[in-house]
Task: inverse folding
């Protein structure tokens, strides 16, 4: 047996349905069910509808057993070896090298996910969370987490906000739906592959900015790419942000404003952080709907504009971080 790597990874939060795990591990769904019946391995969680859910750690344990079987062990021996190593404290599970745990999936036509986006939206405005759970699980079996976030969760969240603004759903329904999606994004933000050993990225909304959807999406996508994230969320006063940055020493700050009023408040960040404005460290970036729709705001704002789209924002953040080493 090869030496165990000195890396511990994996989160115990149930995230993935059986179809996704079969794709991640190369172990068929039939085999996963058989192993659970015969060996009580892995001990998957269940949704309210009885569907299996697996965590990041479950995926890593399955890959470890799979590798031992490929080396010639019998299934029962491999599972017993895993348990023995875990009980003795000698087991270290290592994430497969990838910027995304689901790397290697076959790309699927976006039309599939567009259909799921519409169905998830309809389920949420209908306050049917059980159906939304099933739809997201099925969509994840056809996509990577990044694709699910970009092509289903993010547009569904935007549609829900627009429906509320247009008087098509009540504020209670909007809160229910938005918080449901928010929880999924936060779950991805705190789980996933081990973060890189670098200074973190701080994510914060401008003072009095309560719309955090785009910030949540960016945080989840960055975390999937193994960047360490500190998520401050809604309406962060600039004085508090300045003190926090001086204590934490992040590599980069991403600040979000959606309206004229909150963009005007964000303009003052160099006044509260003159040392950061002068030194350029940490890097300060900004984004949000107001900067996309009214580009003249970019001429007033200090810092680097992230771009009009999430993929552009990710590329710009990684480019800026690479430039500073």
Result:
């Amino acid at each position: 047996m090869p030496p165990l790597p000195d890396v511990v990874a994996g989160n115990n939060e149930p995230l993935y349905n059986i179809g996704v795990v079969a794709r991640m591990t190369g172990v068929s769904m039939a085999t996963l069910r058989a192993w659970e019946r015969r060996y009580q391995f892995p001990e998957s969680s269940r949704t309210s509808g009885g569907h299996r859910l697996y965590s990041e750690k479950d995926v890593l344990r399955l890959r470890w057993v799979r590798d031992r079987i490929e080396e010639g062990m019998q299934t029962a021996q491999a599972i017993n070896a895993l348990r023995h190593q875990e009980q003795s404290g000698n087991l270290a599970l290592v994430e497969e090298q990838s910027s995304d745990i689901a790397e290697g999936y076959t790309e699927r036509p976006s039309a599939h996910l567009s259909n799921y986006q519409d169905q998830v939206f309809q389920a949420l405005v209908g306050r049917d969370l059980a159906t939304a759970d099933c739809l997201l699980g099925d969509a994840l079996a056809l996509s990577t987490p990044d694709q699910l976030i970009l092509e289903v969760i993010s547009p569904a969240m935007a549609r829900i906000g627009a429906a509320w603004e247009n008087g098509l759903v009540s504020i209670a329904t909007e809160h229910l739906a938005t918080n449901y999606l928010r929880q999924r994004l936060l779950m991805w933000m705190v789980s996933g592959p081990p973060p890189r050993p670098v200074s973190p990225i701080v994510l914060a909304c401008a003072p009095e900015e309560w719309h955090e959807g785009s910030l949540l999406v960016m945080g989840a996508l960055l975390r999937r790419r193994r960047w360490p994230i500190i998520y401050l969320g809604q309406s962060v006063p600039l004085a508090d942000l300045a003190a926090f940055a001086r204590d934490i020493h992040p590599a980069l700050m991403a600040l979000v404003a959606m309206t004229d009023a909150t963009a005007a408040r964000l303009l003052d960040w160099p006044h509260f952080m003159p040392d950061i404005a002068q030194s350029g460290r940490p890097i300060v970036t900004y984004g949000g709907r107001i900067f996309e729709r009214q580009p003249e705001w970019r001429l007033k704002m200090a810092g680097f504009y992230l771009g009009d789209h999430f993929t552009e924002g990710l590329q710009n953040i990684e480019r800026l971080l690479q430039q500073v080493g």
Summary: The two ends are 37 Å apart (CA to CA). The domain at 201-323 is CATH 3.40.50.280 (Rossmann fold).
